[in-house]
Amino acid sequence: MGYDVVVVGGGAAGLSGAVALARSRRAVLVVDSGRPRNAPADGVHNYLGREGIPPAELLATGRADLAGYGGEVRTGTVVAAARDREGFGLTLACGATVRARRLLVATGLVDELPAVPGLVERWGRDVLHCPYCHGWEVRDRAVGVLASGPMAAHQALMWRQLTDDVTLLGADGFAGDERLAARGVRVVSGEVVAVEVADDRLTGVRLRDGDAVPLDVLAVTPRVEVRSALLASLGLQPVEREVNGQVVGTAAPAEPSGATSVPGVWLAGNVTDPFATVVAAAAAGLAVAAAINADLVDEDAQAAASRTPSRPSRLTT
Question: DSSP for 195-235?
């Protein structure tokens, strides 16, 4: 089957772009693996009109919106794509193939969490990463910030805005930071070797020297890695992203419009912008969809002028 646009990834960016394209009467297919990055979270925040909505509910609503405009969703994983004169041939993990005139890749990122025993099991519950995403919900509680990246001191100061009980952990080299001292942020050196839990809630962390630090919440900054297999098949290689001169992960390069160096391939959301929140990713999906539709409009007009029918849109005349 052929489509005007195949969207790879059905998160906020992918579904937002797909809805916009379907509303422009484009034949759209979303291929999604069903493993959203924010699945462990209780709710989506800072999304105007959708405050606190569970991630799964937001995606279900987006899929329903898409279906209402004639768009399609297929559960699966696109493992490779190849460009030819007619567009793109996509191969799914199940062996099926689909064709598209344009690709919108919105496959997002993978969080690489610190290798601390017990941490992964609490991810999205009381091991958190973003004060804007989760801070209000844990206000006035005891928050530990794991010093695992270049923004450790800044992260501690951001959490301090939400509670007066903040501890910067594993913070060798931060003891003399006047900003932390002025804001009452405790600095604890030594390696964190375990997350401690009782009655299904985080109670603190254990240091290598055996000391325990009581906490309600542990904030971490994971390294973020772009899902790159599909991009590699198209010849697009991830690039490192840095903060204050230190690498914090990778992302796929794209122009502000979402266009890539491969004609016909566009990117939206965390796959190209690691720091985009859900609402920002959705906004990017809409903007990139508009750019893709404009590109198709030009191609359709040129095809009509040369009396060569454009394919495979089943909705244009």
Answer: EEEETTEEEEEEETTS-EEE-SEEE---EEEE--HHHHHTT
